[in-house]
């Protein structure tokens, strides 16, 4: 069953698959990759990712999400 579902999911673009699941009344939502989260316009607009210096990185990097405005 898992293999059949996985193969079926791979045949459709994510947006179309979500559209079909919602139409069938299946609770669902997209899961973004790390890169997708970092590139999300709302995440960028709200400055939700903060860079902090860390000795293991040169100049810091994304360290987490800010929950404060």
Summarize the model shown.
The chain has 69 residues and is of the alpha+beta class. The chain is 45% helix and 13% strand. The chain is elongated and about 45 Å long.
Describe what you observe in this structure.
- This protein has 69 residues and is α+β, with helices and mostly antiparallel strands.
- It starts with a helix and ends with a strand.
- Strands 1-2 form a two-stranded antiparallel sheet.
- Strand 1 and strand 2 (61-65) form a beta hairpin.
- It contains 4 helices and 2 strands.
- It has helices spanning 2-11, 14-23, 34-39, 41-45; strands at residues 49-52, 61-65.
Total strands: 2
Question: What is the beta-strand fraction?
Answer: 5-15%
**Radius of gyration over all CA atoms, rounded:** 18 Å
| SSE sequence, one letter per element | HHHHEE
Low-pLDDT regions: none
Largest sheet: 2 strands, antiparallel
Shape: elongated
Mean pLDDT: 82
Number of helices: 4
Distance between the termini: 44 Å
Main-sheet strand order equals 1-2
| Estimated structural class | alpha+beta
DSSP helix fraction: 40-55%
Descriptive key words:
elongated; two-stranded antiparallel sheet; single chain; 45% helix; 13% strand; alpha+beta; 69 residues
List the helices and strands and how they pair.
Layout: H1 2-11, H2 14-23, H3 34-39, H4 41-45, E1 49-52, E2 61-65
Antiparallel strand pairs: 1-2
């Amino acid at each position: 069953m898992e293999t059949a579902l996985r193969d079926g999911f791979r045949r459709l673009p994510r947006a179309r698959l979500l559209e079909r699941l919602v139409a069938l009344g299946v609770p669902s939502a997209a899961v973004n990759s790390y890169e997708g989260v970092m590139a999300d316009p709302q995440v960028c607009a709200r400055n939700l990712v903060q860079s902090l210096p860390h000795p293991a990185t040169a100049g810091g990097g994304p360290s987490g999400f800010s929950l404060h405005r």
